[in-house]
Amino acid sequence: MMTILTTAEYKAPESIEDVQNLLRDQVYITDRALAVPIFLAMKLQRPLFLEGEAGVGKTEIARALAAGLGTKLIRLQCYEGLDVNQAVYEWNHARQVLEIRLMEAAGDVDRDSASADLFSENFLIKRPLLQAIDEAQERPPVLLIDELDRADEEFEGFLLELLSDYQITIPELGTFKAVHPPIVIITSNRTREIHDALKRRCLYHWVDYPDYQKELQIISARIPDAPRKLAEQVTAFIQEMRETELFKIPGISETLDWLSALLVLNQTELDPSVIDDTLGLMLKYQDDIESVKGEPVRAMLERSKNRGPRRGGRRRG
User: Fold this and answer.
1) How confident is the model at residue 161, as a pLDDT?
2) b/e map 210-225, b = 16+ CB within 10 Å
3) Rounded to an integer, what is the distance from CA 97 to the centroid of its chain?
4) What gap in Å lies between CA 173 and CA 116, rounded to an integer?
5) What is the spatial distance between Cα 115 and Cα 138, in angstroms, rounded to a whole number?
6) Measured in whole angstroms, how far is the alpha carbon of residue 222 from the centre of its chain?
7) What residues of the chain score a pLDDT lower than 50?
8) Are 21 and 177 in contact (CB under 8 A)?
9) Of 159, 178, 179, 186, which sits with the fewest C-beta atoms within 10 Å of its C-beta?
10) What is the pLDDT of residue 309?
11) Is residue 209 within 8 Å of 54, Cβ to Cβ?
12) How far apart are CA 9 and CA 89, in angstroms?
């Protein structure tokens, strides 16, 4: 879990164009197809479910949105075995035990009053989902539920009450309901299907790999000092590589890492040897590296010279 507090003034977008401008100000390049569901999710107070391959920028959408709105980003990173104690709340057992001992030492232990004291908010540890609906929030936070497909299917049940009414019930304390409902972004890399009951509560958008022109815009905005020719060559080569059968296709983050590395190596243009030397920046599996190293790299580089904005990103799955 990670919480980031930004200092910009909060102002909700009033149009789809406002959403695009807000994200662009945070160096996140988006098109209208994505800006529309983001805008509607905020206006309708519905969660936005973003699905797509790892590395296409789903998580970064939530970061950019929170920074642009000047609100908190509350992140719940999902993993196998995630349960209510890590996601919603738990009791501070160490403090409770200490409080009991202090009561016993003072000779002032009344079971009913002690139980009420020990299970009060003073001993409650609020985890990301409960933080997101805390009435102390002065503005709607952005709640990022990241990589939901990594969590067990049973965990999805914990989300249903929250996503239905932006409320959570704690048996000892009652129901907590958001004064300012959070802007909820749920991401999935589609390693498994998410249950329909949860999907029905969300707006949906598939985040695809960017086409040539959009990826060039992204890397030019993120790494403005890169020579234009090198940026164009890197973009074209990555686009060509995504057409190759690989275990893990490089995402936008790999494109940015690779270009940054090439600048450190003082490269002004691509050649087969430097590509071979830096394949580990793009590919994360040895089998993938071995399958493209050498002659395949040379062939891809040659084909990429004729590549431009004529093709879109590759959709898989």
Assistant:
1) 76
2) bbbebbbebbbebbee
3) 37
4) 9
5) 31
6) 18
7) 1-8, 309-317
8) no
9) 179
10) 46
11) no
12) 30
* Tens-digit pLDDT profile for residues 86-122: 999 999 889 888 888 887 777 766 666 666 678 888 8
Token pair 């997101």: residue: 132
Q: What is the three-state SS of the chain?
A: CEEECCCCCCCCCCCHHHHHHHHHHCCCCCCHHHHHHHHHHHHHCCCEEEECCCCCCHHHHHHHHHHHHCCCEEEEECCCCCCHHHHCEEECHHHHHHHHHHHHHHCCCCHHHHHHHHCCHHHEEECHHHHHCCCCCCCCCEEEEECHHHCCHHHHHHHHHHHHHCEEEECCCEEEECCCCCEEEEEECCCCCCCHHHHCCCEEEECCCCCHHHHHHHHHHHCCCCCHHHHHHHHHHHHHHCCCCCCCCCCHHHHHHHHHHHHHCCCCCCCHHHHHHCHHHHCCCHHHHHHHCCHHHHHHHHHHCCCCCCCCCCCCC
pLDDT at residue 144, rounded to an integer? 98
Q: Do residues 8 and 69 make contact, with C-beta atoms less than 8 angstroms apart?
A: yes
Q: Are strands 183-188 and 48-51 parallel, antiparallel or unpaired?
A: parallel
